[in-house]
Amino acid sequence: MDNTATARARANIALVKYWGKADVELNTPAVGSISITLDTLWSQTQVRFVPGLDSDRFVLNDLSDRKQLARVSACLDLLRARAGVDTRADVASRNNFPTGAGLASSASGFAALVTAAAAALDLQLSDRELSIFARRGSGSAARSIFGGYVEMHAGSATDGCDSYAEPLAPPEAWPLQVVVAITNAGAKAVGSGPGMQRSAQSSPYYAAWVDTSPRDLAAARAAIAARDFEKLAAVAEHSCLKMHAAALASEPALLYWNAATVECMHAIWRLRREGVAVFFTIDAGPQVKAVCAPGARAQVAAALESLPGVVETLVSGLGPGVELL
Ligand code: 2P0
Fold it and tell me: Ligand 1 centre from 107 Cα, in Å?
């Protein structure tokens, strides 16, 4: 092995959301989730194992990132244990989109990290094993190993071995488009990990959120298999709003939206009433992701850009799984 590898992984957006953990240590989710992997939003990560290095180093977008280092190191430790080595690593990662603002930078970041680290250690891992390692770094990262439409299984094994993602359909099977309306590019106040823990501990709606997730997963799976846009729109908006309802009812409250977030939701509903194939989803941040039919992309982007508070829009199709470069 030459100790160095680079991988690129794309961000993904959940249509049926992950919110809440079954086991914090193993980072297994309390609910399954279904996502689409994007094409144009990616993290690219180089991992270089350097004999003699005292500790891991992590540089994100050319800046040393001490805050994330412990999380990166913990993830590398799992791969080092698998490889039976103790060598520390130099990790350099780059996101081509705003970090920590609800745009799934930890998903693409940890998917790229584990894929590059496994290759640098010369581990021959299956995509499923990579997905499990990525999950330990960040739950949503398990999904970014795969392209197109992806389902994450919550699993029930005590060691987390059945908590992984797998592909449902390739990107070209149903080439939907995503218009991301950025309403605030700053990092969010409460990250999703602590946010979901708070909801699990204090939201009276959390149990209902977990209990009703299997039926949302089944509905989304069926809608994707049938390429039924209206059904997918209905279940995706329901899952999103239910997740945010559970978060809102946490103590202290978690409100990830701003005024422009709500403006975007109303605009998307207006477009849909006018016959445009578009729906929204929103993660643990104020950005709105509008998922639409290919022909509706320009109209959706123009409508969202015209709203007060929308700073910019990013447009993406669906993309492939993680790639070693
Ligand atoms: C999702 N989110 O399904 C949901 C919807 C945010 C809202 O997955 O603690 O950063 O690292 O496992 O993966 C973001 O959560 O959480 C997320 P950790 P992660 O996309």
Answer: 8
Name the closest-CA residue to atom 8, ligand 1: 140
CB 117 within 8 A of CB 79: yes
Ligand 1 touching residue 110 (CB < 6 A):
no
Ligand 1 atom, smallest distance to 27 CA: 12
Distance between CA 164 and CA 155 in Å, rounded?
8
Model confidence, pTM: 0.96
Q: Side chain identity at 299, as an amino acid letter?
A: Q
Q: Tens digits of per-residue pLDDT, 206-251?
A: 999 999 999 999 999 999 999 999 999 999 999 999 999 999 999 9
List Cβ<8 Å contacts ≥24 apart for 167-172: 167/321, 168/34, 168/221, 168/224, 168/225, 169/224, 169/225, 171/37, 171/39, 171/147, 171/317, 171/318, 171/319, 171/320, 172/148
Please tell me if the CB atom of residue 236 comes closer than 6 angstroms to any atom of ligand 1.
no
Helix (H) or strand (E) holding 60: strand 57-60
One-character DSSP codes across 3-54: SEEEEEEEEEEEEE----EEETTTTEESS-EEEEEEEEEEEEEEEEE-TT-S
- Rounded distance from Cα 281 to ligand 1 centre (Å): 13
Q: Which H helix or E strand runs over 279?
A: strand 278-281
Q: Alpha-carbon distance 260 to 321, whole Å?
A: 32
- Helices within 179-257 (DSSP H only): 192-202, 206-211, 213-225, 229-248
CA of 313 to the centre of ligand 1 (A): 22
Count of positions (residues) in the chain: 325
Under 8 Å between Cβ of 211 and 154? no
pLDDT digit string, tens, across residues 190-200: 889 999 999 99
> Which residue is associated with the tokens 């799934």?
104
Phi, psi dihedrals of residue 15, rounded to the nearest 5°: -95, -35
User: Which two three-digit tokens encode residue 277?
Assistant: 């194939």
**271 dihedral zone (left: phi>0; alpha: psi -120 to 50; beta):** alpha
Six-digit token pair at 16? 């049926």
Pocket flag, ligand 1, residue 19 (CB < 6 Å): yes
